[in-house]
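Bench log, entry 3. Co-assembly request; chain sequences pasted below exactly as received.
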Amino acid sequence: MLGDLGSILTALAFVATVYGGGAAFVSIRRSDPRWWESARHALYGAAALLGLAIVVLVQAFLSNDFGIRYVVQHSSRVLPGYLKVSAVWAGQEGSLLLWSFLQALFAALAIGRPGERVRSLAPWAAVVLGVIGAFFIGVSLLLSNPFAMLPAIPADGQGMNPLLRHPGMIFHPPAMYVGYVGLAIPFAYAMASLIAGGNVRWTTGTRTWTLVAWLGLSLGLLLGMRWAYDVLGWGGYWGWDPVENAGLMPWFTATALLHGAVMQDERRGFRIWNYVLVSLSFVLVLFGTFATRSGVIQSVHAYAASDLGAYFLGAIVVTLAASAGLIAYRGIALRSETSTESLISRDGLFFLTVVLFLMLTVSVFVGSVLPTLSHMLTGQSFEAGPAWFDRVTGPQFGALVLLLGVCPLVGRAVAVVRRVRQWVWLAGIGAAIGAIAPALAGFTDPMSLIGFSLTGLAGATALIEFGEGAVRRARSTGEAPLNALWALLRNQRRKYGGYLVHLGVVLMAVGVLGTRLYPFERDVVLASGEPQQVGDYTLVMDMMSQERVDDHVSTSASINVYDGTEYLVTLVPKVDRYDNYDQPYSVPALRPALKEDLYLILSGWDGAGTSATVRVVVNALANFLWAGGLVFLAGGAMALWPRSAKVYWNVLAGVTAAGLLIGSGWSMWGAPHGAVSSGGQRPAVGQPAPDFQLALLDGSATSLASMRGEVVVLNIWAPWCPTCRNNLPVLEDIWIAYRNRGVAFVGAAYQTDRADMEESVDLHGLTYPVGLDAGDRIAEAYGITGVPETFVVDAEGRIAYVHIGPVAEAVLRAELDALLEGRQ
Amino acid sequence: MSKRNFIVAGMLVVVAVGYLIISSTGSTASFFLTIEEVLAMGAEAQERSLTVSGAVIGDSIAYDASQPQVTFTMVQIPGDPKAVEAAGGLATVLHAAVTDPNAARLDVVYNGVRPDLLQDEAQAIVRGRIEPDGRLHADELLLKCPSRYAEEIPEQIED
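Structure output for the full assembly:
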């Protein structure tokens, strides 16, 4: 039922889009505004129909309509509601429908309310958008219909892939689609401008759309990186996989387009460049969709080579031919206006920036198709791994960061020579700080220091832009410096948003340099209770545990991390095995810190659960990457902020932007970071032991303070815990042996009642003082993560030894002997 | 005049990046080969990094957890996706390869934890070098299972 409805809605949307494009064409031919109005209404209608189709698909998921094949493939009854909604874009068919809907929505908005500067181009843009829209809706309807029905209705769906159950993956695809479909708008207007004879104002008129698309791609890429980091469990965030590259290439060209558009808006040429860039961006969007489905890119990912590839290849060829033909046809008319300044100028550096972004695109493209390309050229297949990409793109990224630092300086060089000298000094200081600070923190690789000093330079010039602008405004208006800065940010959003983006790039570059140039990866086998030194960390595994959670079995290792003797954190990497899936899913555990992230992946264990194999990855400066990403997005949002709008629009935009930023921040940091348990308060060895009072079984009471001068063994246990009970005889034996040597024993029973405790004490004939830890006060003060745990406190009241899990007799004896020997 | 500067500078960047691409392809890109092609190269194969794909023989897998180190043998499968498709799909090809005693074989050593997906009739994609002992010492070991989900996952992830 819902399936039929969805198919009908999609079919109607197809008809409306085709009609809309056609009517727009007729309106141009006949110069008839009525046809134009009709075309616009048809495009609005198409957007509304596809919106309804999405609603129908969501409803099909929510109501478990397993008559629809797509629902069966990506959902099941137990799936939580929000995941059912996101299941709409969990597979190819639904993704294409969402794509079509966003395409139609953007087209309707861009056609319905075109900017003043591009109003005359709207009909031709509507024709182009009609063709694009019809292509996507047609593919969705005829080749990849999410509403396809099954002949028989299964009882339950196959469930959602566990890897996709992550906030990053819920928002990543829609963000990418916003980027992909958003690029179609400037493309359509650019084509319209070519057809209509070179209206140079299309870049200004569609700037908002270019920015929206670019921001969507940026957000999507960042979320994808964070998702890979949190979920995929290989310790990295970017593997130069063809799928990632497919999203990166249009981002490169869109970034180049944003820079080229600035030049064109300032009437400084770049007109042909911008036509090329916008066409390339759109072609690369199609290429990404094509390449990942056609088997042209040989990847370790198993692409289901679907028959969609041929249609997308056709679309690419048509787009390339049409745009190249139009540019060539109008080329002579466009050429007259080009830049005339020298290379070391604002124009020249913008030019180099655009060229570098283009070359990055070419590099990544060549790398992605290298197996196919080299096979065609030499008959042998070469494959480009991460090393290839790092080596090829690294210098280009470095050059871009250098440009980012130099460009603002050069831009002003002509203006005020005296000031420039100050700026050069400040930028030089920035470069020096950029190199010295990480060197002091222990990052001394010369290559990385060059990189860090570049980021220092670029960061300093970006900051100078803010500072200098604020100071100048403060001088001329007499405002307080902070007010002046605020006014500056408010009035020149695009410019200062851009600098904020640059600042974000600088921070991210620091993160990339750290993680790429200081790789650290070890596989270690941890035996329960045995400390092991890995890099700067000491890891002690408490124990392994296995438990059943909903639809999966989770195996985890609880690992205490120390820096020398200082306790840092307890990390719990897990491996989940889902009932419906053969494959195990590793959930890494992460301890983020400013200097480096410690990242643990549980990769194996022995049958008895006494030893675990753990991959230890240290990602230097990784947090700069994520923090830089947020600054980057904030800058993009600022540039997008509507200018001189009414107050309530500003408030609305502010709330939306803040919400989006918080949302992306949450997606990046708030997500389950692989089961980090804070467990933070367990006192470390050498720290003062928290005092406690304990009412004992015999009616008396004791406190830690009252036992000062003695070595105290505190055992936190519970009668309901078998390992605790089994450990009691050991403790009793040691107590008997050491009671007259200045050693006191205390047993604190955790989360139990008096009767159970007495029963255990009687059963094992305990003679040392035992009491009920009412209200878990002691357990909380000592930050235990489970029972049993045993703490040894020295005569001065400091923690001398901590043991998690049952303590072996020999171990405890050795600790006590060592302490007692030290006193004598 | 200045326009020529622009063109020269642009060409310089293009040439520099072109050099980077070609030199990196020479030094860090790896040959993508089938096992038969590797064996046909003989000692020449030791000269550079290779990426080889093959079917895993379950009985040959040996794991030493203390190192940790995995060794296993893999069998020739066609490198061309179209050939795989024509032979009845990946699962059929992998099964046929493992049961064919005459197919070309290659021993692999991987210093790392045994991946869960390393099992009989899995497809292994191994990146590394052939050492003088004739075995492929892998830096990277990637596995694909011909099961339904393993094939569908990437398709789901990609968007």
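Chain B has one domain: 30-157. The domain at 30-157 of chain B is CATH 2.40.50.140 (OB fold (Dihydrolipoamide Acetyltransferase, E2P)).
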